Here is the input.
Amino acid sequence: MMEQSKLNRLNSLFEKMVAESANIIEKRELKSLYNEFINDGREQPRSSTSYQQPRKVAINS
Here is the structure.
């Protein structure tokens, strides 16, 4: 679970965005915290089970 201090900061930055008073640094911080919030608790994909494009073989007849 995301730390309470980060949730509080996320809420504060969101309110600034809605009020259109957030600067560029705060907008970037909000985006980062929001992504962390969304991904919190989700499993990270395993590299060994990642999608691999099938190999193509050319056959000359």
